[in-house]
Amino acid sequence: MPVGLGFGISAPSLVSSTLVSMLAPYAEDLERLKEDSGKYLVGMTFNKRVPGVACDHCGYVQEVTIPISISRVEGIRGYGPGGSVTVICKKCNRSFPVNWDSLTIEIDMTWKNS
Questions:
Q1: Do 77 and 88 touch, CB atoms closer than 8 A?
Q2: Domain ranges of the chain
Q3: Global pTM?
Q4: pLDDT tens string 15-65
Q5: Within 13 A of 45's CA, how many CA atoms are on the CB side?
Q6: b/e map of 33-64 (b: 16 or more CB within 10 Å)?
Q7: What is the pLDDT of residues 60-82, one digit of tens each?
Q8: Where are the beta strands (DSSP E) in 1-114?
Q9: First to last CA, the chain
């Protein structure tokens, strides 16, 4: 597999060949990456927008962003612990906690071959 395809390099040929040669030591077999791709998500944190969260103070319903951490991946499912984050209401400007239990998310790994 050309390294450029694995990293999605799209550049003029001189620049592309220079980048490809720089990245070559980090190239891995595409099939192995597909099989092991979930392990690269373990320990990562993603921001998730959650609609319909009501302020504890004024009741204003809004969308908030919470950090979701992935603690383990099994197949196409990612598992994360519960958590809590303090957000500020967009209407009354007071802070309130948003809590969530442990979670399971579906991982969609889409592979594009050029």
A1: no
A2: 1-37, 41-107
A3: 0.56
A4: 767 777 776 666 655 566 666 667 778 888 888 889 999 999 999 999 999
A5: 7
A6: eeeeebeebeeeeeeeeeeebebeeeeeeeeb
A7: 999 999 898 889 888 778 888 98
A8: 45-54, 61-69, 72-74, 77-80, 83-88, 95-100, 103-106
A9: 10
